[in-house]
TrEMBL record:
It comes from Liquorilactobacillus sucicola DSM 21376 = JCM 15457. It comes from the Bacteria. SUPFAM superfamilies: GroES-like, NAD(P)-binding Rossmann-fold domains. This is Zinc-binding oxidoreductase. Keywords: NADP. InterPro entries: ADH-like_N, ER, GroES-like_sf, NAD(P)-bd_dom_sf, Zinc-ADH_QOR/CCCR. GO terms for molecular function: oxidoreductase activity. Signal peptide: none annotated. Residues 5-290 form the Enoyl reductase (ER) domain.
Length: 299
């Protein structure tokens, strides 16, 4: 990525193999997901702590081809996934062992890449931060998005009283078909703040006006977790993923056992044309995945 801006800033480049730190492994990439964070980073509206040129991308799924000198938990040839910060739009990625998750045998690289960032985020929010009880009413904004759809599934596992979500168009239709007990609100046709009861817990993946309106339907002792916006209201907590291999591994085990559904919208070969195309995609239901071709190399 040569600069921040439109998709034309995404370009092909030949770069040296990453140099491993003692507790890192080198992953030969098999699949990478296109996440909203990556799109926001490229546009210059998220994560501008490092100036271009840089390698973007936040999900890794592939096999270990080299070990750092102090790696103790993994072996050459193992199938792993992770969500490192940056540098995954590349054939090889260096990742710290604490971020790595083993991919179960019956889980594909594509499924693992799809789970690395958004699904892991939802898992940590629901299982570590939200403190759900069975009497809770929960509102999840952006239910057809990566974090939102995963959050719906994880919240459902807690057997809460009711789950409400916002979506539109094909996304709303998909959610109604996926979970017929889910209260789906088409935000283009209906103001959720005028139609839902008071909520115990809210997950906000949208921000802006949705966050403001959410506070009006949140109980006085309720909690709101936002992935996109901070707020001075004491009921609001901003969440930013701290990548954790054990948490991601727990997610992938759910995929393997059929307890979690991964929705993949489209796959394509990894190249700059497809990368630009997927960065421009709008209102997609499911993850967009780029596959790395298998070829002979130095490992």
């Amino acid at each position: 990525m040569k600069n921040y801006g439109d998709v034309d800033v995404l370009v092909d480049a030949q770069v040296p193999l990453p140099e491993l730190k003692p507790k890192q492994v080198l992953i030969k990439q098999r699949a990478v997901a296109i996440d909203p964070y990556d799109v926001g980073l490229r546009a210059g509206i998220k994560g501008r702590e490092k100036e271009p040129p840089l390698i973007a991308g936040s999900s890794a799924a592939g096999e270990i081809v080299k070990l750092g000198s102090k790696v103790t938990e993994f072996q050459l040839g193992q199938r792993v996934a992770a969500s490192p910060h940056l540098r995954t739009y590349a054939e090889y990625v260096a990742v710290g062992q604490s971020q790595l998750a083993l991919i179960p045998q019956n889980v594909t690289y594509q499924q693992a890449a799809a789970c690395a960032l958004g699904v892991q985020t939802a898992y940590q929010i629901v299982y570590d931060s939200l403190k759900l009880v069975e009497s809770d009413r929960v509102l999840i904004h952006g239910g057809a998005g990566s974090v939102g759809f995963a959050a719906i599934q994880f919240v459902r596992q807690h057997k809460v009283a009711d789950i409400y979500t916002t979506a539109s168009g094909l996304g709303a239709d998909f959610l109604r078909n996926f979970d017929n007990q889910l209260h789906v609100i088409d935000y283009r046709r209906e103001d959720f703040s005028k139609s839902v009861p008071k909520m115990d817990k809210i997950i906000d993946t949208v921000g802006g006006e949705s966050l403001k309106k959410s506070l009006s339907v949140l109980k006085k002792d309720g909690n709101l977790i936002s992935t996109v916006s901070d707020n001075t209201d004491p009921r609001v907590k901003f969440f930013f993923l701290k990548s954790n291999g054990k948490k991601l591994e727990a997610v992938l085990k759910q995929v393997a056992t059929g307890n979690f559904y991964v929705k993949i919208a489209e796959t394509a070969p990894f190249n700059v044309i497809n990368l630009r195309k997927f960065h421009q995609a709008k209102h997609v239901v499911g993850k967009l995945i780029l596959n790395f071709e298998e070829k002979n190399d130095m490992f």
